[in-house]
Amino acid sequence: MFYALYQHFSGYADQLPFLNLLKYLTVRIGLALFTSWFVCLAMGSRFIRWIQAKQGRGQPIREDGPEGHLLTKRGTPTMGGLMILAGVTVATLLWADLTNVYVWIVLGVTIGYGLLGFIDDYAKVTKQTTAGLSGKAKLFFQFLIAGIAVAVLILLAPHSPSTPGLETSVAFPFLKSLLIDLGWFYIAWGAFTIAGFSNAVNITDGLDGLAVVPVMMAAAAFGLIAYLVGNFVFAEYLQVHFVPGSGEVSVICAALIGGGMGFLWYNAPPAKIFMGDTGSLALGGALGAIAVTTKHEIVLGIIGGLFVVEALSVMIQVGYYKLTKKRVFLMAPIHHHFEKLGWAESTIVIRFWIVAALLALLGLATLKLR
Questions:
Q1: Alpha-helical segments (H) within the chain
Q2: Which of 9, 191, 223, 251 is the most buried (most CB within 10 A)?
Q3: How many CA atoms lie within 13 A of 100 on its CB side?
Q4: What is the pTM of this model?
Q5: Could you please report the per-residue DSSP string of 15-39?
Q6: Nearest Cα to Cα of residue 364 among 250, 249, 225
Q7: Can you tell me the distance from the alpha carbon of 345 to that of 196, in angstroms, rounded to the nearest whole number?
Q8: Is the pLDDT assigned to residue 65 strictly greater than 60?
């Protein structure tokens, strides 16, 4: 909104110096982060009291989960992801260029997945069961939302003048020129990236602060990637594919960081509220959509490697048990395995944060190692 005001009144830049600052993407990135943080933090206490009154007994806790969870987490309200979504949406609408198609694609996926997560959380709370929407229904709508978003990207996104066909191609890290053009099959690839990563973040969200901080780290890494690949000079210097207009996505990345910071204020151990599927599905979907728009889908697997490992631990556990009736891990996802080994929750969370930070740096290294 404010960027549109700048464009409208650009002829009066001398009289309105504040608006003149808004032509700089870096300024709007900083303002988006602060705005999202403020909205989320300001909602906090009132929203938690209101949602607690509505939910009563709070989020249902798995009876077969780690023993301590029934005592320490029972009665904690969920749907805290609404706080993050509010911050991200407000910050994006205020500071992003609303004529940019990438902004609407990423924001649309984020809100769509947030709504899907809200429906799932609502079903769990009202029925007081850990089973919300069926897995098949959830996957169907995840792929539907993601498929529509990728189709819109192919049809409406600006074409790269230096790389024809980039909008339907898969780029590979460490290899500066290798591209595989999937044509319309790219919709399936993009939808798999978005839906898969959304579920990976959802699986990781099992301990206080475990998911939100690695999401912020991944958002920071992709904010830098979006800024660089959206700038022709930087993209040429780093020998990465130039994606016109994608720099604007860094505003949403900043909003994700700010919203995550505001939410973490209340989610830090012991958590006053959980983000629920409302938050985890939305945040994972947002990162997946950002990776697709910046043509760094494979790099997402490196930067978000923690989430990938968490998802793989569940698939390995389920598959191996079906074949042998035995378990690889004491409990899946893998963070529960470490709980069963006797690690304190805070120890697991902080060590996983360290791993997430190292993976984010490794992912960023792919920009130069070509």
A1: 2-8, 17-21, 25-55, 67-72, 81-95, 101-127, 135-156, 186-204, 212-229, 232-238, 249-267, 276-293, 297-303, 305-324, 334-340, 345-365
A2: 251
A3: 24
A4: 0.92
A5: T-HHHHHTT-HHHHHHHHHHHHHHH
A6: 225
A7: 26
A8: no
User: What average pLDDT does the segment 42-50 reach?
Assistant: 90
Secondary structure, 3-state, 200-257: HHHHHCCCCCCCHHHHHHHHHHHHHHHHHHCCHHHHHHHCCCCCCCHHHHHHHHHHHH
Length, in residues, of the chain = 370
Q: What is the distance in angstroms between the CA of the first residue and the CA of the last residue of the chain?
A: 38
Separation CA 255–CA 238 (nearest Å): 26
Taking alpha carbons only, the member of 311, 353, 362, 276 closest to residue 197 is 311
Beta-carbon contacts of 268 under 8 Å, excluding residues fewer than 6 positions away, are: 208, 209
- At 181 the three-state DSSP class reads strand
In contact, 215 and 201? CB cutoff 8 Å: yes
Q: What is the mean pLDDT of residues 20-46?
A: 92
Q: Which residue's entry shows tokens 């996104």? A: 157
Parse the chain into domains and list their residue ranges: 26-365
The crossing angle, in degrees rounded to 10, of helices 135-156 and 186-204 is: 130
pLDDT, tens digit (0-9, with 9 covering 90-100), for 279-305: 999 999 999 999 999 999 999 999 999
| CA–CA gap between residue 189 and residue 202 (Å, rounded) | 20
Distances (CA, A) of 347 to 208, 210, 286: 11, 11, 28
CA–CA dist 303, 240 (Å, integer): 17
Which tens digit of pLDDT belongs to each residue from 99-108? 999 999 999 9
- 360, 220 contact by CB (below 8 A): yes
Confidence of residue 64 (pLDDT cuts 50, 70, 90): low
- Assess whether the previous peptide bond of 333 is cis (omega < 30° from 0): yes
